[in-house]
Specification:
- The protein is an alpha/beta fold and 443 residues long.
- Helices cover 21% and strands 36% of the residues.
- The chain contains three helices and 32 strands.
- The strands form three sheets. It has a 24-stranded mixed beta sheet that branches. A four-stranded antiparallel beta sheet has the order 1-2-3-32, covered by helices on one side. A four-stranded parallel beta sheet has the order 12-9-6-31, with no helix packed on it.
- Helix 2 (42-88) packs antiparallel against helix 3.
Length: 443
């Protein structure tokens, strides 16, 4: 009996243990199933797995914004460098490097490279000899974006500028005169690759009337224009512009020597007459058929008139004619139709005592405003250099467009008569620039 009881207890104990295991295993199974079904913390795993990608993307976005900023600044440097170099005239590389350096891009520093080409090495202006190409580049090290690539990122900006085809060759300085520049009748004014300017704020500042026509690279006036339809200017007609500075405002001749008051008359007698530099207070007259040769140097006409009749000849190389005077007596010039004039200014480097480089005629700034000068020789009248008469009322007709490679006119007011042809191939004479030389960005 006892043994049977023990057997039963043993069996009951075994069943209880098995039942316990079943219960525990069931709970564990339910807990595991609940864990597997539970999604409340899954984003933590996703974020953990995606963290390198998210960090890399954020880093790349930040760096792209920085690269865009650098490129914008770099493009400004390239644009300014190209325009400045195109207007420099010489040593364009140094000019471009100086400008880009002001933007923080110094050639050779911090992986910066500045390349200057004239003409451009690529693009639409490779055959335009005056075009200037500036390329600025810099390598940028990677930071967080290195997750997506290796090696530095090269940022590059490129610009191409072309200078205006010409500079000023006609400038009227009077700030208020009506028709400070006047072209009338059937006159034809041909300014070959150069510009016409008038500082007058009048209406009109420039007057092109009748059947007259003006052809110029550019026309610019402070006031307004009458007869704009008769003007051809590929680089534009501008009104309301700022006054153009007097290019010779700070230039003065050396003191004049003692003067001779003898009158000089050159007649047609088959002999050429030569004149030496000096000061003359007596009139100088060259009659029809006569020839006057001027030796190099400065000629002061102190209250004296230079008169060259039609069909007369006056020549001279390295010559400056200075018109001066005092009181009511001031030197002037008059050149008749068909007079043969070949006068060329002193070249750069000429000592001051022997001439004013680039200026073939100089008018004293103290002479009365409106003092008359008549230079109307026409196609056989050729001046090489600048005619600077800041207080004169100048009546001009001259230049044949081929022999006259450099003629610039600066006067208080200017009336252009007949057919006049001017151009500014003045490198050998060193004349001052009229107006600000500009360039235009094309690429």
């Amino acid at each position: 009996m006892l043994s049977g009881w023990k057997y039963c207890r043993t069996r009951i104990g075994s069943v209880s243990q098995i039942s316990g295991r079943i219960v525990v295993e069931g709970r564990l199974r339910r807990l595991l199933q609940h864990f597997l079904r539970d999604q409340s913390g899954s984003y933590v795993l996703v974020v953990a797995l995606m963290m390198p990608v998210l960090a890399g993307t954020a880093g790349l976005g930040t760096e792209v914004v920085w690269w865009l900023y650098e490129h914008k600044n770099m493009q400004s440097a390239a644009d300014s460098g190209a325009v400045s170099a195109a207007t420099a005239g010489s040593d364009i590389i140094a000019q471009a490097n100086s400008v880009t350096a002001s933007y923080g891009y110094v050639n050779g520093d911090n992986s910066v490279a500045v390349t200057v080409n004239q003409p451009p090495s690529s693009g639409n202006y490779t055959t335009t000899s005056q075009a200037v190409e500036v390329i600025v580049s810099q390598s940028q090290p990677r930071m967080l974006s290195s997750l997506f690539g290796s090696g530095p990122v090269i940022i590059t900006a490129r610009a191409v500028a072309v200078p205006n085809a010409g500079t000023g060759c006609v400038l009227a300085l009077d700030p208020t005169a009506s028709s400070a520049v006047k072209v009338s009748g059937s006159n034809q004014l041909n300014l070959i690759k150069c510009n016409l300017y008038s500082d007058s704020n009048a209406n009109p500042s420039l007057d092109v009337s009748g059947s007259a026509a003006v052809s110029a690279n550019q026309v610019g006036v402070v006031g307004n224009i009458s007869g704009a339809s008769n003007i051809t200017a590929p680089n534009g007609i501008r009104t309301g512009m700022r006054p153009v500075a007097d290019p010779y405002a700070n230039v003065s001749p050396p003191p004049e020597p003692s003067c001779s008051n003898a009158k000089i008359t050159v007649n047609s007698n088959g002999k050429n007459t030569s004149l030496s530099p000096g000061c003359y207070s007596g009139n100088i007259t060259v009659n029809a058929g006569a020839t006057l040769n001027l030796s190099p140097g400065i000629y002061y006409l102190d209250g004296a008139n230079l008169s060259v009749a039609g069909n007369a000849t006056i020549t001279g190389t390295g010559v400056t004619l200075v018109f001066t005077g005092s009181g009511n007596s001031w030197g002037t010039a008059s050149i008749g139709s068909n007079a043969i004039v070949n006068l060329t200014a002193p070249s750069p480097g000429t000592p001051a005592s022997q001439g004013i480089p680039g200026i073939v005629m100089y008018g004293d700034r103290n002479m009365p405003v409106g003092t008359a000068f008549n230079l109307t020789g026409g196609g056989t009248q050729n001046f090489g250099g600048a005619i600077y008469l800041p207080k004169a009322s100048l009546n001009f007709s001259g230049g044949d467009g081929t022999t006259t490679s450099c003629t610039k006119i600066i006067a208080d007011t200017i009336a252009l008569t007949g057919s006049s042809n001017l151009q500014v191939n003045c490198a050998g004479l060193g004349t001052a620039t009229i107006g600000i030389t500009t360039a235009q960005l094309f690429e």
